[in-house]
Amino acid sequence: MQFVDTNDEQLMVRFRMSFDQEAIRTLLLRYHRSALALARCWLGNTAVAEDAVQEAFIRLVRERDRYDASRPFAPWFWRILRNTVLDTARGVQRYEQRLRVLALEQDTAPALATEQEELHDLLAILDAEDREILALRFAAGLPFAEIAARLGCSEEAAKKKGQRALARLRAVRQRRVALPAPVVVLPSDAPVPD
């Protein structure tokens, strides 16, 4: 690979100016794994995450002329990925809502949630900033220095945000575990099940 020592910004400029296929290929290889890990964490489904990452890379190619070479490449790309994931999540939510309506019409019982679905549900309760920092740290495995660069804050601020997000996630999980089972009150004339 000829661009091993070339930084991301130089690669993107090279791609933007001359549509250099090797430059974009190098960028895609550099970002694919962490982009997929983040999308998987945000969306909770590998296949949907793969589609979102592919769409983010397509948008990167389409929007190459909007890249500002005086700014770092990584935050620009992560913003494209984040927006793509949010669009994908909205589409998935609409699709799942239609399926729920269809299931209710057919009087089918919902399936039990898996651990991954439970985690996805817990993350969905958190705000977008908390989900993002937890995904960057735990799904993508990024160090706080890199997270800080992507979020545009100091490393200490990124650590503090991560600690607070993790504490909120734990609190949400504790509240969910501590909830008592729902009590069903039947009318006095209802038949008693055997």
Architecture blueprint of SSEs:
Layout: H1 8-18, H2 21-43, H3 46-62, H4 73-105, H5 115-125, H6 128-139, H7 144-151, H8 155-178
Helix pairs in contact: 1-2, 2-3, 2-4, 2-6, 3-4, 6-8, 7-8
Provide keyphrases for this structure:
Rna Polymerase Sigma Factor, Chain: A; globular; single chain; 2 domains; 8 helices; 194 residues; Arc Repressor Mutant, subunit A; mainly alpha
- Helical content class: over 70%
Report the C-alpha radius of gyration, rounded. Answer: 22 Å
Q: What is the CATH C-level name of the largest domain?
A: Mainly Alpha
Using the 3D structure, state the CATH architecture of the largest domain. Answer: Orthogonal Bundle
CATH topology-level fold name of the largest domain: Rna Polymerase Sigma Factor, Chain: A
Report on the architecture of this protein.
By secondary structure, the chain is mostly helical. It has two domains: 1-109, RNA polymerase sigma factor, region 2, helix turn helix motif (Rna Polymerase Sigma Factor, Chain: A); 111-178, Winged helix-like DNA-binding domain superfamily/Winged helix DNA-binding domain (Arc Repressor Mutant, subunit A, Orthogonal Bundle), CATH 1.10.10. It is built from eight helices and no strands. Helix 2 (21-43) runs antiparallel to helix 3 and helix 3 (46-62) packs across helix 4 (73-105). The chain is globular and about 60 Å long. The model is unreliable at 107-113 (pLDDT under 50).
